[in-house]
């Protein structure tokens, strides 16, 4: 059950979408909106800002400007600003410009200060997508 809350607009004017705890999605999500995810996602997520609830699980890569993780993530995270809350469990690498990790959070992976650049795994995927689109 995905719903867009046009009435809840962040100060930058972008929209906000919420995926509730009863949501289970298999597939990639691309959104220009800010996302709040309380359900389970099996696939890659690309959005402006991501807020993950405590009971949420993401199995796949996350790419966003800002990420706030409170649940479980099994995959790579790449963002300019990453906040890992004490309830978070991350099994994967994290690329960031700014990083905050609360005491009690669990992380099994590498931390890479990216200096504003996405990690090679994302860069290669983006270049492959551009090549596919150009070929069409």
Fold and architecture overview:
This is Cell shape determination protein CcmA. Belongs to the bactofilin family. It comes from Novosphingobium pentaromativorans US6-1. The protein has 136 residues and is mainly β. The protein has 1 helix and 17 strands. Strands 1, 2, 4, 5, 7, 8, 10, 12, 14, 15 and 17 form an 11-stranded mixed sheet that branches. Strands 3-6-9-11-13-16 form a 6-stranded parallel sheet, with no helix packed on it. The N and C termini lie far apart (33 Å). The model is unreliable at 1-11 and 128-132 (pLDDT under 50).
Overall form = globular
- Beta fraction: over 45%
Order of helices and strands: EEEEEEEEEEEEEEEEEH
Q: Calculate Rg over CA atoms.
A: 15 Å
Domain module tally: 1
Unreliable residue runs: 1-11, 128-132
**Count of separate DSSP helical elements:** 1
Largest sheet: 11 strands, mixed
Q: How confident is the prediction overall: mean pLDDT?
A: 83
> What structural class do the secondary elements suggest?
mainly beta
Strand elements, count: 17
Q: CA-to-CA gap between the ends? A: 33 Å
Helix content: 10-25%
Family: Belongs to the bactofilin family.
InterPro entries: BacA/B (IPR007607)
Protein name: Cell shape determination protein CcmA
Organism: Novosphingobium pentaromativorans US6-1
Question: Can you give keywords for this protein?
Answer:
single chain, 136 residues, mainly beta, eleven-stranded mixed β-sheet, six-stranded parallel β-sheet, 17 strands, 12% helix, 46% strand, globular
């Amino acid at each position: 059950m995905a719903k867009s809350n046009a009435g809840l607009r962040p100060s930058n004017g972008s929209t906000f979408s919420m995926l509730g705890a009863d949501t289970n999605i298999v597939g990639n999500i691309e959104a220009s909106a800010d996302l709040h995810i309380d359900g389970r996602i099996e696939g890659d997520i690309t959005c402006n800002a991501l807020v993950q609830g405590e009971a949420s699980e993401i199995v796949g890569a996350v790419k966003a400007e800002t990420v706030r993780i409170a649940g479980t993530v099994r995959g790579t995270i790449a963002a300019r600003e990453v906040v890992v809350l004490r309830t978070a469990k991350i099994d994967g690498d994290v690329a960031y410009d700014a990083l905050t990790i609360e005491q009690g959070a669990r992380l099994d992976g590498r931390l890479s200060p990216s200096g504003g650049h996405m990690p090679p795994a994302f860069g290669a995927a983006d270049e492959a997508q551009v090549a596919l689109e150009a070929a069409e």
